[in-house]
Amino acid sequence: MTDQTAENPVIAIRRPSRLREFWASNIAYSFRRNPVAIVSMAIFLLITGVAFCAPLIAPFDPYDPAQIDILNSEYPPFWVYGALPEFSLGTDDQGRDLLSTILYGTRLSIIIGVCAVAVQAFLGISIGLISGYVGGRTDSVLMRLADIQLSFSTLMVAIIFLALTQALFGSEIFSRYAVVFLIAVIGVAEWPQYARTVRATVLAEKKKEYVDSARVLGFGPGRIMLRHILPNSLSPIFVISTVQVANAIISEASLSFLGLGMPPSQPSLGSLISSGFDYILSGSWWITVIPGAVLVTLVLVINLLGDWTRDVLNPKLYKG
């Protein structure tokens, strides 16, 4: 009997790992050639990493009253005369270590921004898929609702909703659930951005042959929308999500600055800027300026990453 293995040796070809495949993809190649994207990603990962590691690396816990002394309020950062060595970035008006408060506040702002965008995406994608696929009166009604929503600014809707919420539930309950209220109102106020984009993509995709083939095979509308059309609509969704995270963080900071967001006892970047604004003319500029610089840097790098994502995922703009 002939040894088939000896006569026809089979060479096993290892399939490259997913990490290697991604590293060789056009997205990774474009990222490696774009120094702005590399620096922006590094800064974003640094800010996000230290923010979410705040309980491990922060010198103090701003939520622990035992670690807060009002007599330590308004100490300057280390490069200004009169600073204390244990407070490297100074203290705020409540005597909290500003570095620790910024770390915890940045984490809270990022959580609110990401969760609000998740609400926006869920509402907008669902409404956009139904509107574009079903069409007819359903499409007209849903898009008119989106037009009405877009006629009001996010801050206007948020201010009205949060002011009514405070009046109905009281300041104590509002302060306790301020994170939930902010996520809900910012998420609900921005869903038309997703809905209109997804609807436009669905209108183009549902006329293609693979959708007709899915209908012939007997697949229902839900499966066709979720399993076939939605995956081909992810590119614009990724671009919108990147920009919307930055917008949600700015919205949270704006509402907190106006006194309708996070309370001073739960530090976010917006509430820190708001609490220090009254002291900026008295010489305690660091309470507002340093958190403001962190906020500007965070939003800037997210927007730069959003621009890079848009250029890469848009074939008309991508030059290789």
From TrEMBL:
Subcellular location: Cell membrane
Domain ABC transmembrane type-1: 106-306
One Gene Ontology cellular component: plasma membrane
CDD domains from the UniProt entry: TM_PBP2 (cd06261)
Transmembrane segments annotated in the record for this chain: 36-58, 108-136, 148-168, 174-191, 237-263, 283-306
Membrane topology: Multi-pass membrane protein
Family under the similarity heading: Belongs to the binding-protein-dependent transport system permease family.
The protein, known as: Peptide/nickel transport system permease protein
Organism: Poseidonocella pacifica
Taxonomic lineage from the root: Bacteria, Pseudomonadati, Pseudomonadota, Alphaproteobacteria, Rhodobacterales
